[in-house]
Amino acid sequence: MRPDPDIQTCCDDTGQPLLRYQQQAGWLQVTMLAESTLPHTQNMMQVFYQVLDKLDPDRVRVDNRQLRGRLSLADSYVLLHSLPLPRRRRRMAVVEDPAWAEQVRFMETAVRNAGGMLRYFYDEEQALQWLLSE
């Protein structure tokens, strides 16, 4: 089977995949791939913002289900304070594993309190339905 030329994979300096993305009709699909430690996540987020700057989508669906582990609440707080403020509002739906519900509630609340249009979902179809609504 040949790889899909429309799917792009971004790696770190060691060649370890960080994220994969593909443009869809009217939205961008991003799948996070790395281990979820603070240094890896900061690296992933830097690449994620570069992809957003390059493609400038209005709507983004992020799939976190392939991440290995999750940040602690303390590391999530540090991460959120290290991220740049968004240059503009984008509608973002994040698909997450329900096992991480407590951590994602914190992230969703923090991002929304900072003015982000972000919602977490445990079902990718529900996420897409919300993303494409309005």
UniProtKB/TrEMBL annotation:
It comes from the Bacteria. Gene3D superfamilies: SpoIIaa-like domains. Pfam families: SpoIIAA-like. InterPro entries: SpoIIAA-like (IPR021866), SpoIIAA-like_sf (IPR038396), STAS_dom_sf (IPR036513). This is STAS/SEC14 domain-containing protein. It comes from Leeia aquatica.
